[in-house]
Amino acid sequence: MSEDxxxxxxxxxxxxxxxxxxxxxxxxxxxxxLGDSGGSYYNPSPSQTALRKExxxxxxxxxxxxGNRFYCLTTVPAEVGGFVVREAGIYDCDGNLLVISKFPETxxxxxxxxxxxxxxxxxxxxxxxxxxxxxxxNPDIQTATKDELTNLSDKINAEFQAVVEKGQxxxxxxxxxxxxxxxxxxxxxxTKSILTPFCLNSCKLDSKGNPDLLSCETVKVVKYTSSTxxxxxxxxxxxFEKDAVVYADTELTEEKGTIVAVDTNTLSIAFGEIGLxxxxxxxxxxxxxxVTGEFYVQDTLALGVECFADSEFSxxxxxxxxxxxxxxxxxxxxxxxxxxxxxxxxYITAHAPFTYTTAxxxxxxxxxxxxxxxxxxxxxxxxxxxxxxxxxxxxxDEYSLIALSNTIFTQMLEPTNYSVNDIWxxxxxxxxxxxxxxxxxxxxxxxxxxxxxLEGGEK
Length: 459
Hints:
The protein is built from 2 helices and 35 strands. By secondary structure, the chain is mainly beta. Among the domains are: 6-137, no CATH class; 146-202, no CATH class; 219-338, no CATH class. The longest helix has 14 residues, at 146-159.
């Protein structure tokens, strides 16, 4: 049965709204709590003063309009998890339940599962009077009065050019969707870019205008072995079921097989592709499969029956591993086992688009995300940490990320105390950058775009 999801104002919340409108007192909102409803859905009641079973609570981080609806938002941190959300509520500063919501079932994975993601929660407040929104406050959200906002708007209009005017005659340069000036509108001095050399010049920004270039994700992969297919890899939370895909590599990019039948109790499994089944009239037991082609069976067509490519039953092609009216899969029944090997990946991603300029003033525009697995750089000792510089490189028009535990020297003269992989950006004309390899300084086009730290221990 389908569920309807909605938010209602509690009896306490309704009375507080009336008091706020009548007396002009603040309608304060402080926290959002999440619950699992005790394991199953129920219909919230206005008389409720608490969730049925609370599992998490956090500060409201933002209040916003969406059309004519008013919402409160919070974020469940990535390191929190291991529960299912089916109910949610908004509380005031005194811990009183103002709004209760029947929430779409949402699983917040335990971080130990390898799935580490934040969860944004947004709950509507149904306002009895539209002017009540002006009285809603949250002590943890910076607020401004109407007069302050009006004065700020007037100042912006007087001192800054509107975005729609950029690129027009006598106007400033235009901006793109990321709020950046397109490269073609930036002047050049002869063959040199005006952008800062040996530097990341632009990247995507977050909602606060800060750089949003790098992200990190930890992914764990489990290894299995089947009697015919051989080794294959899946995620730790993988569900063995029909149509599920397994992979040939630990990066889970190369598909190795699709499950058509599985019994997790006996650890038996079959891989293959399901095709259309048709029967010929000429010979009993003569069939055709749109995937395998013509085949013959000696017995009645059923699960587990052997199939042959010829009517003499000499060339076996497998057994029936899936059969459903007009659909069939012919493959092999196999057994599978868990190797117990868990592979961990730590992926650092540089999110495109971004622009960087090399020491020789050559500017590059990176249009696709760049990903680097740094798991093999982790120190062995559990109490050891190691710092890295992250560089972007271009080799034959192919961009990649390179992580080096090194020192970057920015100076005119050659460094005196240096080690292998150290980078020297020479800041006298002509500008150049070098990396110390094979006991000499060699020219390089590597450009630093970030830093990160890895902790040692079990991978």
